[in-house]
Each structure stands twice: as structure tokens, then as C-alpha cells.
Amino acid sequence: MTFLVAVQFLTVLPLSKSKPTAADIGASQAYFPLVGLLLGLALAGVDAALGRLWPPALANALLLAFLVLATGALHFEGFLDTCDGLFGGHDRERRLEIMRDGRVGAYAVAGGATLVLVKWAALLALAEPARLPTLIIFPVLSRWAMALAIRAFPYAREQGLGAAFRAGATTRRTAIAAAIALAGAVAAAGWGGTVLFGVATGVAWLSGGFAVGRLGGLTGDVYGAICELAEVAMLLVATAASGSWFVGPVATVVPRT
Description:
By secondary structure, the chain is mainly alpha-helical. Helices cover about 75% and strands about 0% of the residues. The chain has helices at about 1-10, 20-25, 30-55, 55-70, 75-90, 90-100, 105-125, 130-150, 160-165, 170-190, 190-215, 220-240. Helix 10 runs antiparallel to helix 11. It is globular and about 50 Å long.
């Protein structure tokens, strides 16, 4: 049940008509990386299909669009709200107020455009043997980054959907998420997977700590922003590595060039 709640929350798949309880929501974070694995496998399949139909620039743009649609733009919206809140207010109360506002400000527009552009350029430059394992595991590890941030940092509000996740954050659930994420990363990319696991973990700690300094804690929007930042950081590292670290079984599916 908790895994299905995680799928329902992190994707657009309507697996259940019943509303999950706060306890179910809190427990579901243990399976965030497993949901990321489903997204990663879907990305790999879509990427193979798009590459047969369109040139790389267009195919990678459509691949990004697929990821946004598959997740209901949940994390992207959180990233936009976080940009406005963290940089658009002068004190904690005003920043939290801005993040509640549904309107999009200049920081959100600039941040969102930069995020999409960098992701697109990184995907365009991401070649085999790094491409396939990276597409599979970067959604896994970005969801691990969210699970870690939920456990590691306090929640900034008294209420909100994120409060249910924070209330359900336990060492055991975080350990399960870490085990799933690390096992998937190593299985897909070997040494490269451990490097990207470290990148995602570092992004969670650094960005979470920065947000706590500005807000006194994290919010649901910040969780989404951490997911987005972890994704772009891993894509940048994987692109810079040029496949030299990717030695797992998935990386050997496509011959090295």
C-alpha cells in the first residue's frame, strides 16, 4: 500500500481512488527511489523510441517534456516556488508567504528557464556508454535526495502536505530508501553509480541546509526543488565523466565508443 501511495504521489498514475492517510503518506518515502526506478526505465524506453524518430536536439526536448508530464510537473513547480521564496523575500515570514502565492515571479522564471536549458544541454551532450545508465538512475537518486532531506531537516510550517512526510520520517525508512537507491545505482553503473549517489546526497545536504538558513526548515516546495537540483547536478557530472566511470552491466549494453 505504501509503495502505491508513493507512485500515486510522485507520478500522474491514478492507482487508487481512495485518499491515503497521513500515516500512509509518511511511510511512502521509503519507496521514493523505487518510484524513481520506474520513471528511469520509462525514460530509457522513451529515449530509445524518440531517437529513432527525431534528431537529438528535438528528441531530448521531448524527453524532458515526458518527464515533466509523467510527474505532473510536481517537482518543477516546487522549484519555481522555491526560487521566488528563497530569493524574493527579506525575512522568513515573507519568504514562506511568497511560496504560498500561486503567482510566478522573476526569480521563478529565471530559475525555471535556466534549469530546463541546462538539463536539455546536458542530455544533448550525454553520450553512450553513460547515457543509458544515467537515464535509468538519475530519477532514482533524485528521489533519494528528497527522502534524505525529509529526514535530515526540520519542517518549516506547522501544517501542509510536507508535514505528513516529515512526521513519518524515521531512520528505518530513510535507510530503506538509501539501500534501494544505492543498489540500483551500483547495479546500473558500477563505480559511476556510487559517484552519482554521492552527488545526489551532497545536493540534498547543501541545498537543504541553505533552505533551512533562509526559512528555518523545509517545505514541500523545497523537497521538489531538491529533486530538480539533484537531477541537474547528476546530469552535469555524468556528462563531464564522458562514460569513463560507468562500468556496470547496464553501461555495457551499448558498446563503448
